[in-house]
Amino acid sequence: MAVHELPLEPRSLHGYFSRELEPVVEVEPGDSVSFSVPNHAWDVSPGEPFPRPRPELDVGHALAGPIAVRGARAGQTLAVRIDSVEPGDWGVTHTGEDHSVHWVLADGVGRALGLGVRLVPFLGVMGMPPPEPGTHPTRPPRRFGGNMDCKELVAGATLFLPIPVDGALFSAGDGHAAQGDGEVSGTAIETPVRAQVTLSLRDDLPLKWPLARIDGAWVALGFDEELGAAASFALAGILGVMGRELGLTGGNAVALASVVVDLRVTQVVNGVQGVHAVLRDDALV
What we know:
The protein contains 2 helices and 21 strands. It is mainly beta and 285 residues long. It has 2 domains: 200 residues, Jelly Rolls, CATH 2.60.120; 68 residues, Acetamidase/Formamidase-like domains (Endonuclease I-creI, Roll), CATH 3.10.28. The radius of gyration is 18 Å and the shape is globular.
């Protein structure tokens, strides 16, 4: 399988979702794509913005792509294996109240405020455009992924997304060096990243909402303006896993979920809120 390199240049980036955006590369299923992106605000270093190719449209996160997958069709499932995510040497966390904390990132640790935190880098945005025409903001997550801000999606995880449009048109960005569940200030440690993903197609895993396989667990994600509805979507996703993996359905699946599934607040700051349901392998003995 091939590895495609997207250079860090304006033609490789965009700041909105649209099915009408031309792909920057087309890959075969099973190919990998390496790319670098500025941080969420298009900065490559503190106070040094990267040029936005369409300033009037590129008002959202700096995303690499879109990447077309040959043979992808709406209704299939896109498997995104996260091969690597390498943060830059600096980061920033905004509180939304005209206050920011600046971080120095080195040797797996972020330092600020006289303290150190362990870095667990991931991509905050991974997804595809809605099927409706026109432009769509990057901020709210959707059934097809996007700004999910799920800290479980680190290198080694595989994310499964329902494909909304032919070709898939996958994009990614919004590097986070570390984040807590909830992302309560509205930002994590926002940093430029270099990353690689491998894209494959699945015909045997129909999905309505994103699903992920992480180290030792399944994770199902749900999004809605109401947190309770987001939790219901995430629970439905993990009940589907129980049906496929354990042969449990109906009340039996719900009973077991009430005992071993953890519901976690993914984020509450993107207009559309997120919940992820976690079923660990070691929950069953």
